[in-house]
Prior knowledge:
By secondary structure, this protein is an alpha/beta fold. The chain is built from 9 helices and 16 strands.
Amino acid sequence: MKTSAVQLSRYGGPEVLELVELDVGAPGPGEVRIHNRAIGLNFIDIYYRTGLYQEALPHGLGFEGAGEVEAVGAGVHHVKEGDRVAYASGPLGAYAAVRRIAASNLVLLPRSIRFEQAAAVMLKGLTVQYLFRQTYRLQGNETILFQAAAGGVGLIACQWARALGVRLIGTVGSPEKGRIARAHGAWEVIDYRAEDFVARVRELTGGSKVPVVYDGVGKDTWEGSLDCLQPRGLMVSFGNASGPVTGVNLSILAQKGSLFVTRPTLATHIVPRSRLEESAQELFELIDRGAIRVDVEQSYRLEQVAQAHADLAARRTAGSCVLIP
């Protein structure tokens, strides 16, 4: 059978994204064929489109989606034809109406969660899960700094922090985004275009600063984020929205207070499979009890993928975006 899918044969701007027809065969051993009902749009997709992260060309895009199982290959037992499923890990290729994927990447999707919600929350929600529950395990009553709190990951982080009893200080790029972050649970917000976020963090914490900074922005906030940390604090650099951090002088960590730095990824936090299931269950439970609300603020048809990427890169979006095949 054939399916519509997005591919790129060269790196560049949104214009390199092509809608093509691909053959999708029967699932092999350990594989499942899925009819995607919704596909997540994430900043990491832009990194692959521009060549910041590289795979052999041509290749597809997207890690995250939700849909129904059409067929299962030999040796697959935990899902069956007709099951509602969601996924948030590779290989690339979620930007497609139908795809084959390793069954080990799938989790069963509760009936209480719509496909659009799952596609909008799986990658971002599991990212917040590993940031808050594994990389630096928040216990409650901490004050933390989260860069870009009005983005898709940031809004889930605001809600998860509130559920844990954590005071999240979030940076935003406009008063409107500040209102959105507050509405989702941020304790305080800082408009980085109008304020010095380092000075404001010192003020909000009475000079003590924070034990952990979660930074998905990258080079533009690197130095400032380090300056917000307490001695022996942890800098969690998990994204590159403004470009990668390069040329790091390790001695600066000593100068700023014997700081720790980590550059984690989701892939190493959802293995073995039992950890993926536990992480997804924690996320789904928070959604079911209303502690996390999944707002799909923007939906695009698959053929509108170039516009979707342009809007995301220009930060014209708030909350989560999905593609609908």
